[in-house]
Design a protein that fits this description.
Layout: H1 10-21, H2 25-38, E1 43-49, E2 55-60, H3 67-72, H4 100-107, E3 109-115, E4 122-128, E5 131-138, E6 143-149, H5 156-160, H6 165-182, E7 187-192, E8 195-200, H7 205-213, H8 215-218, E9 221-227, E10 232-238, E11 250-254, E12 257-259, H9 262-271, E13 284-289, E14 295-296, E15 307-308, H10 311-331, H11 369-373, H12 420-426, H13 431-439, E16 449-450, E17 459-461, E18 465-469, E19 473-478, H14 479-497, E20 502-512, H15 515-530, E21 534-539, E22 542-549, H16 557-571, H17 577-591, H18 601-612, E23 627-631, H19 632-638
Parallel strand pairs: 1-7, 11-13
Antiparallel strand pairs: 1-2, 2-6, 3-4, 3-6, 4-5, 7-8, 9-10, 10-13, 11-12, 14-15, 16-17, 17-18, 18-19, 19-23, 20-22, 21-22
Helix pairs in contact: 1-4, 2-6, 6-7, 6-15, 9-10, 14-17, 14-18, 16-17
């Protein structure tokens, strides 16, 4: 038998690695900016054309590279970040794998200009298909200027799966936000097709948040700070009343690196239990500083997943820090005395009249008999009572003898409990007592099962599901998805027939978007107009909703519009007939009844009737299950 195992060429190995490291233009931006940060740059410019398809250019003022280093940087596993295996346990740089530039050069054309500080000239390197086409000396500014052109141009299949420019640009902006939030001592500029999208100087975290997401977000933040031997946690969390139903800004950073960590996310969410609705999410920007030896960033090529050695302990520290900040804010609201509208506190004037001149009786005790008896006695105890709805007693001026009023209380508390214990011990267990103990047992009224009215065959469970008998068992219907399916059919029919109308708003609603959302909304504005939306731009990333589709009825137009934008960002489908179907799906989802809403018997009957009249009631338009069946055989097995 001949040998069949062979070593793959570097060109093939780089393409395999590119599938993990370089997935879209945003991945290229991430890798190049992280390299610039590792090079010590404090000024980074990112220039894009066609959302990165045609050009991704990153210019930095870092240390630059020598001609030899410039050429070696594009060899696979060539890096200046580590030298031996033990260095993996003390990483302080963003990159260390030595794969990024090699994989970028395998899927795009690269034009590199670089020069170290203090040199009189630099070098220019041209690569095509990961092969050096030319290298020669060239005069340039200190630092590095990297241009990545025609991404995936020689890989038609990969290029085909890129989304439209608006979606890819939104991904780039999201990646840029993560990089800008963690590198606060760097000046950033982001430009797309000649338009500056972001530009801001070095700043602190709160200012950077305001620069990226608006001043209103920065004003809603509560500081979090704690330091232990294991971890130092700093940053901000949002006020509970400013939690978001969608597009929540949630960022974790560790040692200058962005990370996703579901375990720590649950710790933050637990702190907001009973403070925010179940369908809302808090805002947070939290930075962890730990010993590099206690974390492992070498889990995934994108380096966004990080393993902590002391996860459970840090979880408890994080939860305690967030709870303390929330408690401190709620207990002692801060007053800024430097504000123009700060409350005026008058100075104390001892010569002024009023309550300040009321003489105090040092012998006053409301529980002593001389004061109590002054109101009279009734059976040893006098009480002042007033029936509900009675007129209040007329007020008396402060400073008169009648201003002090006393209410008598019993002087001998034991008399109230006389014979209580003996009667309790001697009382027989009568039927009424037994019944009262039975009543103490939780009844079905306290359970999340809505008992159906007489003659009705469907019941509501946990204010989320509707249970009704079927031919082969019990049918369990998700009420939100059922209503969404019904509304989708109604909306899509109205859109296709042109019957959908726009409802003019009496007072236009203003919506402030992030830069990524603004790009997406602009790209689908025409399709939204075809479905009854009347929108107008009134400023950078700010839109006015002048009219909304009449079919969404009393739903919040701003929330529905944001849901459409976020849904489009997730799918990235082109604007065509399928896009109109997607709009119908999103509007139906936003307008449908929510889980947790109690339905009347008539509403349940109407919903089931509308659902079962459809040709395909079992799934939503995007393939989620609406109806599940619990077969009779499974019910029989339970007993």
């Amino acid at each position: 038998m001949s040998d069949i195992i062979r070593l793959l060429p570097d060109s093939v190995a780089n393409l395999i690695a590119a599938g993990e490291v370089i997935q879209r233009p945003a991945s290229v931006v991430k890798e190049l900016v992280e390299n610039a940060v590792d090079a010590g740059a404090d000024n980074i410019q990112i220039i894009l054309k066609d959302a990165g398809r045609t050009l991704i250019q990153v210019i930095d003022n870092g240390c630059g590279m020598s001609p030899t280093d410039a050429r070696m940087a594009f060899e696979r596993h060539a890096t200046s970040k580590i030298k031996q295996a033990t260095d993996l346990f003390s990483l302080t740089t963003m990159g260390f794998r030595g794969e990024a530039l090699a994989t970028i050069a395998s899927v795009a054309d690269v034009d590199l200009r670089t020069m170290p500080h203090g040199e009189s000239y630099g070098t220019r390197l041209l690569l095509t298909d990961n092969k050096v086409e030319d290298q020669h000396p060239e005069t340039c500014v200190p630092g590095t200027n990297m241009m990545v052109k025609n991404l995936f141009n020689r890989l038609p299949a990969r290029r085909k799966f890129l989304k439209k420019d608006a979606v890819e640009l939104s991904h780039v902006i999201h990646e840029f936000e993560r990089l800008a939030l963690v590198n606060l001592d760097v000046e950033f500029t982001l430009m797309h097709n000649g338009t500056i999208l972001h530009q801001f100087p070095k700043s602190n975290l709160k200012q950077r948040v305001s620069d990226l997401f608006g001043k209103s977000v920065g004003q809603q933040l509560i500081p979090v700070e704690t330091e232990t031997s294991l971890v130092k946690i700093t940053g901000f969390v949002g006020m509970p009343e400013n939690a978001r139903r969608r597009n929540a800004l949630q960022y974790f950073f560790v040692n200058g690196r962005h990370m996703r960590h579901p375990y720590f996310h649950r710790a933050v969410m637990q702190c907001y239990e009973r403070l925010i609705p179940a369908d809302c999410h808090p805002v947070y920007f939290l930075t962890f500083s730990v010993d590099p030896a206690s974390i492992d960033v070498n889990i995934h090529p994108t380096k966004n997943e990080i393993k902590f050695e002391n996860e459970q302990a840090i979880w408890q520290i994080l939860a305690a820090a967030v709870r303390e900040s929330l408690g401190r804010f709620n207990a002692v609201p801060a007053i800024d005395f430097n504000q123009d509208d700060a409350p005026e506190i008058p100075a104390f004037d001892p010569s002024a009249g009023g309550a300040a001149n009321v003489p105090l009786d040092p012998n006053y005790n409301p529980f002593t008999s001389p004061y109590a008896s002054s109101m009279g006695a009734l059976g040893g105890a006098a009480y002042q009572t007033r029936s509900v709805g009675a007129s209040p007693a007329p007020s008396r001026s402060v400073g008169t003898s009648a201003a002090i009023r006393h209410t008598t209380v019993p002087s001998n508390w034991d008399s109230l409990y006389a014979n209580f214990q003996s009667e309790r011990d001697t009382q027989p267990a009568t039927q009424s007592v037994i019944q009262s103990r039975i009543n103490d047992i939780p009844s079905t009224d306290s359970l999340p099962l809505e008992i159906a009215p007489e003659g009705m065959t469907a019941v509501q469970l946990a204010a989320r599901f509707i249970i009704t008998p079927g031919a082969d068992g019990l049918l369990i219907v998700d009420q939100h998805r059922a209503h969404e399916r019904v509304l989708y059919e109604r909306f899509i029919n109205m859109i296709e027939s042109g019957e959908i109308a726009s409802q003019r708003l009496i007072f236009p609603e203003t919506v402030e978007l992030s830069a990524a959302q603004d790009v997406l909304l602009e790209s689908i504005e025409k399709s939204l107009a075809d479905t009854g939306w009347d929108l107008s731009r009134i400023g950078p990333s700010t839109w006015a909703i002048n009219g909304a589709p009449s079919v969404i009825q009393d739903k919040n137009p701003a929330e529905t519009l944001l849901a459409i934008v976020d849904d489009f960002a997730a799918t990235g489908r082109p604007v065509d007939e399928e896009m109109l179907s997607r709009l119908a799906t999103t509007m139906a989802r936003a307008a449908a009844i929510k889980p947790g809403q109690i339905l009347s018997a008539e509403e349940i009957d109407r919903l089931l009737s509308d659902l079962f009249s459809l040709s395909t009631p079992t799934y939503t338009s995007d393939g989620r299950t609406v109806i599940a069946t619990l077969p009779l055989t499974d019910l029989t097995r339970l007993f």
